[in-house]
């Protein structure tokens, strides 16, 4: 295991401000409340961001090699399953990950060997078995994850959280000093940015979240018995009889207007999956913005104090392999939980638990080194090594 170039943050925080009440903010509020921390959740319009979609899939996409990213996504998936098991909004219909090509089928077969999990967690299905599970014909084999499924996302983020103080206002002012974080003039021990791409205004320039527009289409169609994904995805229908499918993916576009071209694109994804477009009465499409990080891992944890780290780690600019004898440990009273990209349902429960570990020192339910891999400080280190700071 690689030792991080910094000392981890430790906070003795009793009162925390959480900015943004989507999947990230609500998971954070829940995790910290469970640890006895008093949380105030600021959002003028909860579930108005990407977490306002009617349905979302609980993705799991491990890679062949157990890279930190692959381990994070797998452990996050397993943690999310536990967190969601009693949620009335989670529907464990099963999730099929279909191969996108022959080469991809080989990759999935190798992933399965590497995972070495019991069949009730994941198993191989040929095209015929996949067609039977789905209730419609497909030509690709893939992996079946019987415990996964889909979430009624908007309902989930709107769940009551009685011990959390909600303030239905936008945060317009955020200032930090060595003892406190001031949010809209109110004092807290810590502030946590959970407002996705909108967090950018308060982030240092070495953190570069980017917006990725996505439009999800809806159709009155009750054919799919379980969730399925390849390049596109389709959920089973919800209580209103509508299934969701998509989703378009437009990097560096932060506009949420509805576009007929995006719906046409989503149908083209269904043609790739099933050989034909989905039939049924179209429902209301919805466009929103994913917040992606440059390495597709979320950014989770405290932010380093400007300037001090650059001084302490200056030698990295000339020697990327150098390790400091004294590791920097100065942190701002500002944490982030952003960059969940296309898989916030999977990543946000574990990310919230990781924040809980950083604040209280309790052990997080994941490999210890993953905290380092998700820390926003990783981008400062990379910038120093590249001579960009
Ligand atoms: C089309 C599409 C399909 C997707 N499908 C899936 C899927 O199937 N499975 C999956 O896991 N993920 C999916 N995702 C991704 C998932 O929706 C996101 O990862 C997740 O919703 C991100 O949650 P979040 O809380 O970080 O951000 P958001 O949900 O965007 O929440 C941010 C919140 O911050 C609030 N806010 C902003 N500024 C302020 C401020 N100044 N003060 C207070 N509050 C503020 C906003 O009102 C908003 O409620 C999809 C995304 C899109 C766009």
Task: Estimate nothing, just give the exact number of structural domains.
Answer: 3
Average pLDDT: 96
Query: Which cofactors or ions or other ligands sit in this model?
Result: flavin-adenine dinucleotide
Q: Just name the CATH architecture of the largest domain.
A: 3-Layer(bba) Sandwich
Query: Radius of gyration, Cα only, in angstroms?
Result: 21 Å
Q: Which structural category do the helix and sheet elements fall into?
A: alpha+beta
| CATH homologous group name of the largest domain | FAD/NAD(P)-binding domain
What is the overall shape? globular
* Total number of beta strands: 21
> What characterizes the major β-sheet?
9 strands, mixed
State the end-to-end distance: 27 Å
Low-confidence stretches: none
The top-level CATH class of the largest domain is Alpha Beta
Helical proportion, percent range: 25-40%
CATH topology-level name of the largest domain: FAD/NAD(P)-binding domain
Counted by DSSP, the helix tally is 10
Proportion of beta-strand residues? 15-25%
Structure notes:
- By secondary structure, this protein is of the alpha+beta class.
- The chain folds into three domains: 15-50 and 155-209 and 294-385, FAD/NAD(P)-binding domain; 95-146, no CATH class; 212-290, 2-Layer Sandwich (D-Amino Acid Oxidase, Chain A, domain 2).
- Helices cover 28% and strands 22% of the residues.
- It has ten helices and 21 strands.
- It has helices spanning 23-34, 68-84, 102-115, 127-134, 153-157, 260-274, 308-312, 344-360, 370-374, 377-385, and strands at 15-19, 38-42, 56-57, 90-91, 95-98, 123-125, 142-145, 150-151, 165-167, 174-176, 181-183, 186-188, 190-193, 210-220, 227-229, 233-234, 242-246, 250-251, 286-292, 299-304, 331-338.
- The strands form four sheets. Strands 5, 6, 7, 14, 15, 16, 17, 18 and 19 form a nine-stranded mixed β-sheet that branches. A six-stranded mixed β-sheet has the order 9-2-1-13-21-20, with helices on one face.
- The chain is globular.
- The two termini are 27 Å apart.
- The model has no long low-confidence stretch (mean pLDDT 96).
- The structure holds flavin-adenine dinucleotide.
